[in-house]
Amino acid sequence: MSIQVGAPAPDFTLFSDEKKEVSLSDFKGKNVILLFFPQAFTGVCTEELCSMRDNIGVYEQLDAQILAVSVDSPFTLDKFKSEQQYNFPLLSDFNKNVSEQYGSLHEEFAFGMKGVSKRSAFVIDKDGIVQYAEVLENPGKMPNFGAVKETLSSLN
């Protein structure tokens, strides 16, 4: 079951690429763009996160913090972040709990892999309420970042 617009965003704590615990509640009072992506070092995921990196100023002006989540280990995410020079936290949902909680988990993925995050985008407002939710079944598609920006603009 995916999270619906208007619902409170479930809080979580995950380890970051810096091997530090990061909780959604750490960002209370700030808008959050919560992205789930299938796997580090893959083409579409790299393109998606590089787009966020390159447009960080736009999101900062909209008072938004980007958090990107995958089932990769913190060690893999550290290497991915370093290589791509991402300027936002990458969070490891290695045990798949948060991806599942947000309705963003593929049971079956490419090459027979099971339990990979679905590409998803959520906008969570300063009070912790989901204002935008998009869960994509096709990992080759990108979230609608125009709609993400519109949602953020409406919150400010």
Overview of this structure, please?
- The chain is α+β, with helices and mostly antiparallel strands and 156 residues long.
- The protein has a single domain, classed as Glutaredoxin (3-Layer(aba) Sandwich), CATH 3.40.30.10.
- It contains 5 helices and 9 strands; from the N terminus they run E-E-E-H-H-E-H-E-H-E-E-E-E-H.
- It has helices at residues 43-54, 56-61, 74-84, 97-101, 145-155; strands at 13-16, 21-23, 31-36, 64-70, 90-92, 105-108, 114-117, 120-124, 130-135.
- The strands form 2 sheets. A 7-stranded mixed β-sheet has the order 2-1-5-4-3-8-9. It has a two-stranded antiparallel sheet with strand order 6-7.
Give me the Rg, rounded.
14 Å
Helical coverage, percent range: 25-40%
Q: Helices and strands: which structural class?
A: alpha+beta
The CATH homologous superfamily: Glutaredoxin
Number of strands: 9
Domain module tally: 1
- The count of helical stretches stands at 5
Q: Ends: how far apart?
A: 29 Å
The CATH topology label is Glutaredoxin
| Text of the CATH class | Alpha Beta
Largest sheet: 7 strands, mixed
- The CATH architecture term is 3-Layer(aba) Sandwich
Order of helices and strands: EEEHHEHEHEEEEH
Shape field: globular
**What is the arithmetic mean of pLDDT?**
93
Q: Give the strand order of the largest sheet, numbering strands 1, 2, ... along the chain.
A: 2-1-5-4-3-8-9
Low-confidence stretches: none
Q: β content, as a range?
A: 25-35%
